[in-house]
Design brief:
With 144 residues, the protein is of the alpha+beta class. It folds into two domains: 2-48, SH3 type barrels (Roll), CATH 2.30.30.730; 51-142, Arc Repressor Mutant, subunit A (Orthogonal Bundle). Helices cover 27% and strands 21% of the residues. The protein has helices at 62-73, 87-97, 108-123; strands at 5-8, 15-20, 24-29, 36-40, 45-47, 52-54, 59-61. The strands form two sheets. A five-stranded antiparallel β-sheet has the order 4-3-2-1-5, with no helix packed on it. The chain has a two-stranded antiparallel ribbon with strand order 6-7. The two termini are 18 Å apart.
Length: 144
């Protein structure tokens, strides 16, 4: 499931992969508008399945981080106002979600983006992150 949820650099929000063309992808926004448009090969498109968060020991797949966040929030949207939160507030909040995250390599903007994505997914009803976990053949070293 996470393979078909995409982030596009320079565009806010998340998108669902609808179709593939010769030199583009057809994506649909995950919001109330469900606006469809092409994403071209020049756009930086990344699947959420390819994203991981840095910890002190290893990289943790985004699906696991989202599951921890859902557990912390009991399935509701994020209780922290991440748009107005300070760096320390973000780090303290995220330490409850992923205690061993690497404070040198995970930036406040990364945490804000994660919380924004979490809220979008919860609002869209895409909250079963266990289905989004990487499969046995996935290579975690390719994730960023």
């Amino acid at each position: 499931m996470l393979e078909t949820i995409l982030a596009i650099a320079g565009k806010p929000g998340l998108y669902k992969l609808v179709s593939r063309g010769n030199r583009n992808l057809i994506v649909e926004s995950i919001d109330d508008k469900h606006q469809r448009f092409p994403a071209f090969t020049t756009d930086r498109v990344i699947s959420l399945a390819d994203i991981a968060m840095y910890t002190d020991e290893e990289e943790i797949p985004l699906a696991d981080v989202l599951t921890n966040l859902k557990t912390k929030e009991k399935g509701a949207v994020c209780s922290l106002d991440y748009k107005k939160a300070s760096k320390d507030q973000l780090f303290d909040y995220f330490a409850d979600v992923l205690p061993s995250f690497d404070r040198d390599r995970v930036h406040p903007s990364d945490i804000k983006k994660l919380l924004q994505w979490y809220n979008i997914l919860i609002a869209a009803g895409l909250d079963d992150f266990s289905k989004m976990a990487p499969t046995e053949g996935d290579n975690i070293d390719d994730r960023k």
